[in-house]
Each structure stands twice: as structure tokens, then as C-alpha cells.
């Protein structure tokens, strides 16, 4: 049988190129086609192409995709598609194009057709393209075009998804032996002082394309090719034009497509827009910044681990300013290097095509990473760093992100109103949150707040509202730990400035000090699902009837290291978390699970839910009567609803049939008994009157 091929246009940035190749491998597997691996676009130009095998080791990928070929070999066959498929994917900023096909393959006369790619699972691709008999299936791009394998009944195909997300990703991250040797020497030099080092990914998403030259800073010189160029291995945009979101989410802006000044401007506009993607809203809500200003660079560098060598991966036209690097080096007591610095220091001979692979591999081998949450290459480095640490039997690297200055990050732990009846016990246990209890935390992943030392980035605080019925038995101790008294934090809740007043809501802000932590570096901050609270003055014989209510419980981090001015945006910092407009993704999706999510009713107030340790009431209060348990509203698939209805009808019919059968049996048994009873009644009547019936005479 003739081979059928899958061809697609490559993006210009290395991070997005990786993701597109991984998606293409999965789609080729779904459609049973031979994958054609495209070029990498050097300097972002479709006329300056480089084969994948000249930069990375292609052998591991060919073992997973037998028969896969590169674009240069495919072009020798003289094949071309009958149509170019221009995909419209979920990324609303990407408009498909055909530039690569026209310039490299010479398919200028091939017609095009537009196809949606809003549903990108394997079953959708089979339905759309599985019956295509064309030898060449050509897509405009495959970035954001595949979501995973599905099996029977729409369930995830675990085996194929593991192949897609783990095996293929690892195969793509394969370096040539010469690159591996140079990376080993560079990382050995970076670890020579403290055996640990940090990688800082300083991005420029507007001008970043893959290039052949690493920046030389801090006085080192080298006679390498294209010495005036900078290495730039992040993404500017794929082989498609970028159409941004409107500048605001107002009614007028919904029909206006204003061109933002930068890619980061479009991300910020998308985060505010009602149709923005969930991941963009989540990243923005956590305080991450896309365009990193000098003030944000200084602010974030101050959070790095002290005395660790810092490796700077700068792409696009960005470079770490010399004065900022010197100031940070003095403050952290650490050395700052770029890949060009270390290569010149060690006297290594590096081919131009080896620069991007070396720089990425060195960064992925670091113990601490400072990344850009909006950059595709940062996402690739984070994934590759995890794989590298596992292969080397090292702890996973600590991930940090560039954060906005003056961005107070609020993460909700519990936004409803919970009432805890005080039960006599000598420990003073008031209530517990946990996975084995009905009451669960709204957010279990608080790692966005955590710095290099395993503690919440200063200034850290806990905000909550407390309502007590007895001032002698108020909220006293807060234990937020993964294990009992270990791995987390615990501290005493101080009374309000004017003391505890009964039947009044008290708004408290409790500073979180360094002394409150227990084993912070070993704490799994991405899965903190346990919380215990205690009341004051416990006694095993105390009378019952007292209670404590809590609501609007938030962890907060200011992330600021400078004086605040008096402008209106900065003054937002002083507003309580409960008054800030947090994105829905942060309130409901960020690590939240179970019954304790902060869902809101139509009036905007959080709904109630019952707990195992207390009763959660409807907000706002305060009447003293707890509500009944509210069942969790869970959206079910349509087939489950239909199945439930059919089963209900079947059970009802069986019940009616059983009832009819029972009535019939009882009636059949009662007939002879009734006749016998009538006969006996007639005999008794004859005996009493002394005459016999005519039938018996």
C-alpha cells in the first residue's frame, strides 16, 4: 500500500515548535499516516530553514514514529496535496497562513480550505480526516490542535495519552552527543561553587526567534560566527498571523479588534476579555507578568536563592542590564553567567546550530528556575527540567515565575460561611478541613505564592472573618499542615484590637512570620488539602451551645520590595481580598476540588454546604439557625442522564409488574377461600333454622 503523509507548517519559535511537533506525532498516529518533520525557521524566516536532525538527535523520535522523514527528503518525492487545510484553533489570536508551503515546497497554486479545530481529540480527528484517501494531508499549523486520545464511550485512552505526553515529549528533547558533552562541562562549571545553580529565562515574546548566536556579556570576547547576533530561542509567533483581543472587555470593544503594541499587551487584554482562554486568566490572576520591566526584574531577582550561581537565558532582543546583574550579584553573593560567558571561559568550540540546544539544556539542568508563565519555551524548559531531574535522581527543581510589582496575590482557602459548634474536648479542636471530610478547601495548590525557601513570598498574611457567640471560646489556633503538626504552618490567631465581641463579624489580618513554618522546603504546597482550627480555653466539662463562624479565608502575598506611591492602583493593595475582583479561574479552578468550592448564587453571595465538623450557612448572616446540607451541583454527561432515566423507568415498570402479580396471586387465593366461607355460612344458617337447602335434599 502507498504511504500516506502528514505535513504541517512549523512555527518560528523553538518552544512552540516543540509543542507543534508533539501534536503532529499524535495526529499522525491517530490517522495512521507517516509524519513529515518540518524545518526549524532560523531567524524566523521561511527562506532560512535548518533540518531538525542538524540541531537535535532524531533517533529517539524515529523509534517512536517508524518511517517518519524530514521535509527535505519528502520534497524529493515530488508529492503535493490537493488542498491546504487552514486550521482555526482555540487560540483566538492565530489566523492561519501558507507562507512556509509557498516558499519551501512551492505549492503556490494549491487551493485552500478552512477547517475548524475547536474539538481536537482523537475521535474528532478520525471523524473529520480518517476517511481521507489523499496521499498528502497538509495543515497550516498544528499548534494548539490536539488535546488527547479518547477511547470507547469518550473515556481517556490512558496508554496512548502516556505515549503522547511522556514518551514523545522526552524523545523530542534529545540532544546530539557533542551537545551533551558541552552541556556537562558547562553545568559542572556552574555547580563548582555550591553544587547548585539557578536559571533565569528572560523573554521577549515579540522579537524572539531561533538564531545562531549567544550573547557575550560581562567582558568576555570570542571569535565565533555572526558575533553581532543574539541567540533568541523563544517564540514570536507561529507560521500564522497574530490577531489580538480588543483592548478592553467593554461592550464597544467586543466588536473592535485594536492592534496591541506587543504580544504581551494582547495577553493582558485577553485576560480581561470575557472570551479569554482559561489558562490566560489563571496566569494573570496569579500575578504573573508577561512583559518583564526592569523594576520587575529587580523585584524578582531579589527572590532568588542566595549564593547560587545564576545562569541567564535571554532571548529576543532582551538582555540583563549590566548594572542590574552586578547589583543582584552583590546582593545574592552569586555569579551571573550567560552561555556565551561560560563557553568563552571554558574555551569550548561551538557550532552555530549548537547554541540553542546547549542553552536550553543547561537551563533545564538547573536546581531553581525563574520562568515566564506566558512563554511556550518556558513551559518546555519546565517539562524538560522535571525529566532531567528524574533521570539524574535529583530533587525536582523549584519553579518561580516573573511576577508583577505591586500585585497582591490572593488565593482563597474558603469563601463560604461555616458554623462550628463547640463540642467539649480537652484539645480545643473546633473543625477540620480535609479530603476525607465533607468540608474541603476551595484551593489546594498554593505554590504560586511560594518562594525559593519554601515559604510564602513576603509580605505574607492570612485574611479571614470570624463570628463568635462567646468571647471566652473564640478562634485561637490555625494549623495549615500536610501532616499533623508538620510540613506547613501553624500560628495563633490574635484577638481583634478592641477584643472579641459576640455576635459581630470581625475582619482579621494575621501576619505570617518565618517562625510559623514547619519543614517548609519539604512541604507539598501544590497539594495542601488539610487544615485544622482550634478554639480558646477548652474544657472537657464545659456546657454546650457556643459556636464559631468563619468565612472569606484567604492567603495573601504582596510580592513587593519597595515603597508604595499613592496612586489608585497601588491603594488596591490595602483592600481586603474579599473585595478584590478575583478571576473565576482563581476562585473556582485553582487547585480547588470537592464540595468546598466557593460557588456563588444568583445574588452573588456564596452558597451554603454542610460539613462533618460544623454546618455551613448561607452568606450573609447572621441568624443563629444553620441551614440543611446542600447537595453539590455536578454537571453530568448527557448519556449518564439518559441512562439514569431509562433505568428509572425500567425499575418503575418492574415495580408495577410485581405489584400486579402480587395482587393477582392474592386474588386467586382469596376466591376459593371466599366460596368456602360462603358455604360454611349457609350450612350454619340451615343448622340454626332446622331446614336444609333444596340442593342438598
TrEMBL record:
Residue ranges under compositional bias (Basic residues)? 591-600
Acidic residues compositional bias: what residue ranges?
A: 614-629
Give the signal peptide range: none
Matching InterPro entries: GDP-Fuc_O-FucTrfase
Sorted alphabetically, the keyword list is: Carbohydrate metabolism, Fucose metabolism, Membrane, Transferase, Transmembrane, Transmembrane helix
What GO MF annotations does this protein's record show?
Answer: transferase activity
User: Transmembrane region positions?
Assistant: 638-667
Q: Which Pfam families match?
A: O-FucT (PF10250)
One of the GO biological process terms: fucose metabolic process
Q: Where is the region Disordered?
A: 591-629
What is the name attached to this protein's record? Uncharacterized protein
Amino acid at each position: 500500500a502507498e504511504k500516506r503523509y502528514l505535513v504541517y507548517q512549523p512555527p518560528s519559535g523553538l518552544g512552540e515548535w516543540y509543542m507543534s511537533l508533539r501534536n503532529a506525532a499524535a495526529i499522525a498516529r491517530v490517522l495512521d499516516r507517516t509524519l513529515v518533520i518540518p524545518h526549524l525557521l532560523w531567524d524566523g524566516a521561511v527562506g532560512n530553514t535548518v533540518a531538525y536532525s542538524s540541531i537535535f538527535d532524531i533517533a529517539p523520535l524515529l523509534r517512536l514514529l517508524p518511517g517518519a522523514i524530514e521535509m527535505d527528503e519528502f520534497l524529493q518525492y515530488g508529492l503535493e496535496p490537493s488542498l491546504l487545510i487552514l486550521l482555526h484553533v482555540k487560540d483566538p489570536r492565530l489566523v492561519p497562513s501558507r507562507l512556509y508551503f509557498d516558499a519551501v515546497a512551492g505549492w503556490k497554486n494549491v487551493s485552500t480550505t478552512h477547517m475548524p479545530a475547536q474539538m481536537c481529540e482523537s475521535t474528532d480527528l478520525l471523524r473529520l480526516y480518517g476517511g481521507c484517501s489523499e496521499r498528502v494531508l497538509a495543515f497550516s499549523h498544528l499548534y494548539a490542535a490536539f488535546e488527547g486520545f479518547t477511547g470507547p464511550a469518550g473515556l481517556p485512552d490512558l496508554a496512548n495519552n502516556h505515549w503522547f505526553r511522556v514518551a514523545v515529549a522526552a524523545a523530542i528533547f534529545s540532544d546530539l552527543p557533542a551537545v551533551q558533552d558541552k552541556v556537562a562541562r558547562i553545568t559542572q562549571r556552574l555547580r563548582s561553587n555550591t553544587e547548585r545553580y539557578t536559571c533565569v529565562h528572560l523573554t521577549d515574546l515579540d522579537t524572539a526567534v531561533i538564531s545562531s548566536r549567544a550573547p557575550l556579556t560581562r567582558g568576555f570576547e570570542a571569535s565565533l560566527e555572526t558575533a553581532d547576533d543574539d541567540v533568541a530561542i523563544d517564540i514570536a509567533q507561529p507560521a500564522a498571523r497574530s490577531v489580538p483581543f480588543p483592548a478592553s472587555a467593554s461592550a464597544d470593544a467586543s466588536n473592535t479588534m485594536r492592534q496591541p503594541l506587543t504580544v504581551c499587551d494582547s495577553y493582558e487584554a485577553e485576560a480581561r476579555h470575557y472570551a479569554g482562554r482559561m489558562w490566560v486568566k489563571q496566569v494573570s490572576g496569579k500575578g504573573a507578568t508577561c512583559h518583564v520591566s526592569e523594576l520587575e526584574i529587580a523585584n524578582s531577582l531579589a527572590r532568588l536563592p542566595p549564593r547560587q550561581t545564576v545562569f541567564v537565558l535571554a532571548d529576543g532582543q532582551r538582555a540583563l542590564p549590566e548594572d542590574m546583574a552586578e547589583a543582584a550579584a552583590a546582593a545574592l553573593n552569586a555569579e551571573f553567567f550567560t552561555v556565551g560567558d561560560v563557553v568563552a571561559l571554558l574555551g569550548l568550540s561551538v557550532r552555530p546550530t549548537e547554541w540553542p540546544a546547549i542553552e536550553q539544556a543547561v537551563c533545564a539542568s538547573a536546581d531553581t528556575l525563574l520562568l515566564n508563565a506566558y512563554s511556550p519555551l518556558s513551559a518546555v524548559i519546565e517539562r524538560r527540567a522535571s525529566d532531567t531531574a528524574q533521570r539524574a535522581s535529583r530533587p525536582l527543581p523549584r519553579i518561580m515565575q516573573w511576577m508583577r510589582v505591586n500585585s497582591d496575590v490572593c488565593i482563597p482557602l474558603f469563601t463560604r460561611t461555616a458554623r462550628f459548634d463547640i463540642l467539649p474536648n480537652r484539645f480545643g479542636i473546633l473543625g477540620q478541613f480535609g479530603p476525607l471530610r465533607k468540608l474541603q478547601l476551595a484551593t489546594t495548590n498554593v505554590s504560586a505564592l511560594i518562594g525559593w525557601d519554601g515559604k510564602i513570598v513576603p509580605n505574607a498574611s492570612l485574611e479571614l472573618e470570624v463570628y463568635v457567640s462567646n468571647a471566652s471560646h473564640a478562634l485561637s489556633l490555625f494549623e495549615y499542615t500536610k501532616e499533623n503538626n508538620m510540613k506547613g504552618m501553624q500560628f495563633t490567631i490574635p484577638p481583634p484590637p478592641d477584643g472579641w465581641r459576640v455576635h459581630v463579624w470581625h475582619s482579621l489580618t494575621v501576619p505570617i512570620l518565618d517562625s510559623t513554618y514547619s519543614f517548609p522546603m519539604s512541604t507539598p504546597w501544590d497539594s495542601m488539602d488539610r487544615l485544622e482550627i482550634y478554639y480558646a480555653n477548652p474544657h472537657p466539662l464545659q456546657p454546650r451551645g457556643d459556636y464559631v463562624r468563619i468565612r472569606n479565608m484567604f492567603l495573601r502575598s504582596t510580592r513587593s520590595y519597595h515603597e508604595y506611591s499613592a496612586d489608585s492602583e497601588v491603594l488596591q493593595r490595602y483592600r481586603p481580598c474579599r473585595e478584590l475582583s478575583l478571576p473565576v479561574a482563581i476562585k473556582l479552578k485553582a487547585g480547588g476540588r470537592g464540595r468546598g468550592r466557593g460557588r456563588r448564587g444568583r445574588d452573588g453571595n456564596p452558597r451554603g454546604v454542610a460539613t462533618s465538623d460544623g454546618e455551613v450557612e448561607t452568606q450573609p448572616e447572621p441568624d443563629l439557625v444553620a441551614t440543611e446540607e446542600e447537595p453539590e451541583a455536578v454537571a453530568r454527561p448527557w448519556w449518564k442522564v439518559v441512562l439514569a432515566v431509562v433505568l428509572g423507568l425500567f425499575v418503575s415498570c418492574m415495580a408495577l409488574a410485581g405489584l400486579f402479580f402480587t395482587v393477582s396471586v392474592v386474588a386467586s387465593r382469596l376466591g376459593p377461600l371466599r366460596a368456602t366461607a360462603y358455604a360454611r355460612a349457609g350450612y350454619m344458617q340451615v343448622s340454626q333454622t332446622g331446614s336444609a337447602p333444596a340442593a342438598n335434599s
